[in-house]
Amino acid sequence: MTIRFFILNFIFIFFYFSGFCLTNKIDQESLLVPFVKNYHKLDYQGANQNWDVCQANNGIMYFANSDGLIEYDGASWKLFSLPGKQIARSVAVDSLGRVYVGAHEEFGYWERNSKGQFEYFSLVHLVSDESIRNQDIWKICVLNDRVYFQSFAGIFSYDGTEIKEIETPANVFTLFKIKDRLLVSIQQMGLYELENDSLFLLKGSDQLAPQTINVLMPYSDEELLVGTESGGLYLYNNDKLSSWKNDADGIIKSSQLNKAASVEVGGHSYFILGTITQGLLVLDRNGEIYSHLTKGSGLQNNTILGIQVDQHKNLWLSLDNGIDFINLNSTFRYFQDRSGELGTVYSSAVFQDKLYLGTNHGLFCADWDVNHFRLLGDFSLVENTQGQVWELKLVDDVLFCGHNSGTFIISDLGTQKISDVSGGWSLKSVPNQPDILIQGTYIGLVIYKKEHGNWFMSHMIYGYHEPTEFLEFDFKGNLWASHAYKGLYKLQLNSDYSSVLNMDYYGSKEGLTEDLNVNVFKFDQQVVFSTGKQLFSYDYNKEILAPYQKLNHELKSFQKAHKILSIDRQNYWFFNKGKCAKVEMEQGKLKRIDALSFQLLRGNTLDGYENIVNLGDNQFLICLDDGFSIFTDQGSETSASLDDHRVILQKISCNSQNSRQQVDLNLENPLEINNSNNNLSFEFALPVYRFGAMKYQWKLDGYDSFWSEPVERNQMHYSKLPHGDYTFNVRATDSYGNLSSITEYQFTILPPWYLSKLAKLCYLVILFVLIGLFRVIYHSKLDKQKKRYYLKLQAENEEQIIKLKNDHLRTEIESKSKEIANYTMMVTKKNELLIQLKEQLEKLEKYVVAAAAKKRLADLNKLIHAGINSQDQWAIFNENFDKANESFLLNLRKSFPELTPNDLRFCAFLKMNMTTKEIASLLNISPRSVEVKRYRLRKKLNMEHEENLVTFLMAMNAE
To answer: Which residue ranges run through the membrane (predicted)?
Structure first.
């Protein structure tokens, strides 16, 4: 059994890819294709081959790649390898977001954990080794609460817990999910329906038993569209089977039909058919080919291995080499001349059910479906028109072709050259002259006239011979002509348009910003002039050119437009350095500028020669440098709102200097993050796939004050966030300015350890301890201060008492000193008086003769002498003197014991600073004797000659 399964697998793969060697050249030149974006293996960082594709409910795309599972969220690609590094053959996603993958001898699912990380869970341990040996899982279908894995050998049914192996009557080609039904293609037996894990043959489908059924999808409520690998398409209705005729039948039968999908776009249903050798076919319900995409028209590879219609009706193709994205719902369809035979398209026109293209190689035409705006055949060169075509213009159902070699009229009969004047640049109708046309050429202006229904060249206008690319008449009948290389002319023509009556030149000296590339156009029923820097208008009162301030301000960057084309009186095309915008006017006011819808054109038009032709019914042909595009004007694509879409947070990581870790993506419960991990990175995406990358804005509540500017970067990093509560807000915006809903993520940065609750509790305890300690110290210090205060107060009191005592003593001393002085003065006066009396008595004694009298006088003289030398007086003096001079005499006696009482008395008199005369009177000696006593006293006191005796004695008391 195992060997048989291995051989069957090998045979299947061999035939599956045998079509790579087949070639079937088809004519695809006539088909218009939608925009295709290629993703190379270098973009998604995987292998070449992508075997299957699916989309999750959140919009994320998944691809089964030879290197594993690839995820794309619109912003970044991620590759997840299977445990055994097997080739991923199939992929499917359930409503819970589980991504199921099938591979060689392996199947299981990827699931995100709480941190957004993908984790793989294998399911092969739930089946027997024999049933999975040498088997690849080629298809996975999710229906209700079950997942079905299909290999060539059989089908496995998984209910979330157990796997049941479903018996099949033969090998299985593929498994189909049709609404709420599962249908199975069984080799050589037809179609079966799988119900309650049992297979039931669909009646009538056994007619397809010889065929390999690779495609099955609803055609209507009752019918199924069945596609076989090489037998074409069929319609199956209950038990009836019929061939479905279609325009691609030959292609389908020869290119190995492999995958299919259906989509409804613009009210029309389309069937998307992927082949092995001929790329992708898009058929409508009538079997007509709407589009055929191959490597020649934009695909990376002609082998389609998987097709997925996403939530916005875009197509995703998993290819044998790469991944392609097709904007099937786009308003643009393209015809690309990859051969280079057509050349660059300068102009176009639809005339008599043919599409004409004027290129630098000549005039080409092809049959055109005017009702469905599509080509019906190949382009061919119109005879005799090889060379540069500048302009195609319809006038009164006549097609004019302005050519490098002249001007032609195009009809069913061929081409008619009506002018040999080189360079038919610009053909204009003359106001109020329906039978006259004027044309700017390389060498001047040409007049064409119509007579008897036929147009012919009449003449060249005399007096003006400048190369003229653009022409416009103003409301006064003046003809404004832009020189091909320098400046602008205002021409006044005569009545028969044969010559120029007056010509005024305008260049940089006349007010324009420059001379080069000045063009003239009609806008809002008045003439405007473009310089590539700003628009100008003509002031008819002042007869000068002046900047068109109001319009320049409203047009913003498109005031620099170098070309303006009129759609009608209210709508215009503006071109500015490769950019295109549609400008809408309403009642003379600018209503809207739409430049976003035309970003696809940027870089694809020919600078300076851009051209868009109105085909009618809101269809426009845009001339490109390698073909053309058909644009369907639906008013605005801004109606594709993003309100119902929400940005997905793919990953949140926090890190410190030493570690990095992912955090939970739970949007419901705020997350707490350690302060050491306060560096946060957010990764996000909005899986909406449109032309132009999504841009993102974010704002961190609690940190940011405003939303960030929109940028394409889908990551944001915050460093060293302070502790606190935060809410990270992120939203997306597309090229049209539509905003998605806001995704919020709440988290808290915990305080550092030193600010934690435990730390704060410790701080509180420490604070209380410190407060207690402070109180103890404070009271201790206060007690010491009180004690010091009391001691100080006591000392001050004692000092005050001492001071009072000293003051009292000082007063007493002063009093004693005064007493001494007074007493001394009294004694001095007394002694002086007694001395005088003694002297008088001595004189009187000379005259007394009587002895009694002499004796009496002698007694009296003794009495006087005793009064002069009274010891009592001296004792009183000593007592008072010692009190006043702190025992001066006592100290002096102790210091100099050899001093006599007379010496001490003499010292006292000297200390009192008495004069020699006063001392002599007190001591009852002569002044000369006083000096002698001074001399002797100095010797007893051991004084140097230069020392002052009085000063010495004064110092003795101080000591």
So the answer is: 758-778
